[in-house]
Amino acid sequence: MVEGKVISIGNVAYVLGMDSKRLHRWYKEVLSGYKEALKNGQIGKDDIIIREKGKQKKIKVPILKQENLGPYMAIDEKTIDGICYTILSNRESNKIAMMADTLKVKHLARILSKLDNKMEVRSLTRDMASNYEWLGHQVFMNAYHVVDKFHVIKNAMDSLQAIRIRYRQQELEKRRTTKQKFKQNQETEKWSAKLDGKKFYPHRFKYNEHIYSNGDTTLQLLARSRGLLFILPNKWSIHQKQRAKILFDNYPEIKEAYYLILQFRQWYKKPKTSINIRIKEKQLIEWVNKVKDANIYEMDNLSNMIDTHMKYIINYFLKSETNAKAESLNSQIQRFVHINYGARNTDFFLYRLISYFS
Fold this sequence. Notes:
The chain has 358 residues and is α/β, with parallel strands linked by helices. It folds into two domains: 48-148 and 322-357, Nucleotidyltransferase, domain 5; 150-319, no CATH class. Helices cover 54% and strands 12% of the residues. β4 (72-80) and β5 form a beta hairpin. The protein is extended. It starts with 8 loop residues before the first helix and ends with a helix. The mean pLDDT is 86.
């Protein structure tokens, strides 16, 4: 049961009416084969030793399997117990070909040099991290890169939300400075009253807020608009339509950015007819120029990012490849971490990880 599924040993112990610590110890020492693997040198056999700042350091490589290398690969990072691991996985089999606790290109290239037939890799999906771009070009020289669609759209949505957050911070700053001035005035009045021999009666601070037609204050409007900015206009509820109109009337910059993002999301949709990559590239260049003309700081950062990774973003339309399988694998690993209450014994945890994911 424990070997076949990602399941907690504690749950198995509960079903069997056993002490969970005793079952865990029995599984680790007897059933799992961990002690034999440790004795035979199977654990840590692919680890590499490097020198950093005059000191030796071991980079753990719990998984390195030639048979899991295929034509369609994905590369991503995963943090386990505070350590960042690079995971190279096969998008067809969803198995891990390489897992190493480093993000540095030179170390990853050294580890992957042990694998054969790297020229058989035809495509590599990844995020926009520059280290994975360099690694892909160095190791998988015959593969074209696809920047993950969901990472790009997430960055676009984050840029839109950043504008809303900027206005909200400005409103909070306005309140803070008003309150500081009120306190200073109160202090001045207090000393004036003391010098005149009069009794000072302190006032209660009250911030005069503008209340919109839907009952929202400015801060509430900016906070409650978060959700509707993720949704297409035809999916808005009646209340969201009302709030969106108020938001866009008072913050035209947010409105402009919202509809620019809508155009970008529309660009990512695959047409029902055949795709002309050149037309898609032309459309994206036109959109980037529109964003630059809008002169919105947060959107400028987005347009620069898309401009930098444009050819890899457009490669999505070759075969509609995404990093969804790698993200799903990350979620499964995270669930595995949760049911084990973290990675307390790292070597044993990674040993169990091998049997499930490689």
